[in-house]
Write a structure and sequence with these properties.
Two copies of one chain form a homodimer.
Chain A (H helix, E strand, L loop, with lengths): L17 H4 L12 H22 L2 H8 L3 H8 L2 H8 L6 H8 L7 H13 L2 H16 L4 H19 L4 H21 L10 H17 L6
Helix pairs in contact in A: 2-3, 2-5, 2-9, 3-4, 6-7, 7-11, 9-10, 10-11
């Protein structure tokens, strides 16, 4: 499915966008003038840690870095993308949600299952996700990640589902996905850990479809 | 539903059994002669850490404690119960599986959802489960817990489901439950964290039923 989507299903592991590559940089180099970019990301981590995701602003991040807010927008495009870069997330919820709904609501379960497994079966992405999940499970200090997931993933998914109970449906789909991550990749329970990817995909797709779109609809 | 089952749904938080209470002890005291019991549990933790759950034996635990294996059986009844006591688990998979299947296979989703939420909504049990889950997520050192869940929970559930793919079905049901634990009680995503328990129960029951008993059956 991913081949029909030029951005790739996660919005991050595909071709770098101009903003991510930075002006005048050859493809494959990291985005932005190294030093300015690093300064902005350091300021962003400080701001997100202090004020959470919802409370942080591009303006305050720019102030912390001693640059103009327009430069932050130039390098990253949005608060969401600053967060993704600062936390080195292998996923852009905005792109994922577009991708998951690209064939219409009757295919969201299958597309979400495929996108999730694409991500977790990729060793580099998996390592980042594992680190995030470990921090979140350990942490008192997971409010920024929680707010990011809530604001950027739950809200976007819920907007596309469109029912009154859509935010809960989005959370339940996320719960099934994180449960698979936990049992297959972290606890490595058998047989789920060594079951072929295609079988897992086929098993969870209808459940995700049910969570997002099935059962009694509360409009 | 739990009131029809004298043991209680988790098999641990109900009335203590004679073996758990220990010979000649008043009800409400911890099982066994304090010192002997502590010695056995210390030896058990050492044995489980060294050899995992599958590799550990009651005989070796008794040897480590300097007691007769019959005394270990007398105090705890089985290797599973020694593990539960040593790890202070708030759940006995044997009792849970009996309880979940008590009304027949068409009710397993609802009963498993109710049992799971009974456990997690109880503050003391939740604290133990959170500690276990944190250790398991962090850990390289989670093989004993993993083997215990695999041997005692997955296998027992799978035996009752009876299809060839039953172990995978059991894992998938566990994945949905742990995903709810993660999103509702650990990450505290909204709205799932503040949704009333009855609503969560109603949402996950059909999904658990599907994982355990629905879809194409591979006999």
């Amino acid at each position: 499915m991913a081949e029909t989507d030029p951005k790739g299903p996660t919005g991050v592991t595909g071709e770098p966008t101009p903003a991510r590559r930075g002006p005048g940089r050859p493809p494959g180099r990291r985005a932005g003038t190294g030093e300015t970019r690093t300064t902005i990301l350091d300021a962003a981590r400080t701001e997100f840690a202090a004020r959470g995701y919802a409370g942080a602003s591009v303006r305050a991040i720019a102030r912390g870095a001693g640059v103009d807010p327009a430069l932050v927008h130039h390098y990253f495009g949005s608060k969401s993308r600053v967060f993704i870069a600062a936390m080195e997330l292998p996923i852009d919820p905005d792109v994922v949600v577009d991708h998951v709904f690209a064939e219409g609501p009757e295919h969201v379960g299958a597309r979400l299952a495929a996108t999730f497994l694409d991500l977790w079966e990729d060793p580099a992405a998996r390592e980042r996700l594992l680190a995030m999940l470990r921090t979140a499970v350990l942490g008192d200090d997971n409010s920024a990640t929680r707010e990011f997931v809530t604001v950027e993933l739950t809200t976007r998914l819920a907007d596309r589902i469109g029912t009154e109970d859509a935010p809960l449906r989005a959370n339940l789909a996320v719960s099934q996905l994180l449960g698979v991550a936990l049992t297959r990749y972290i606890l490595r329970l058998e047989p789920i850990a060594s079951t072929p990817r295609a079988e897992i995909e086929a098993r969870i797709a209808p459940v995700l479809q049910h969570h997002l779109d099935g059962g009694p609809r509360v409009a």
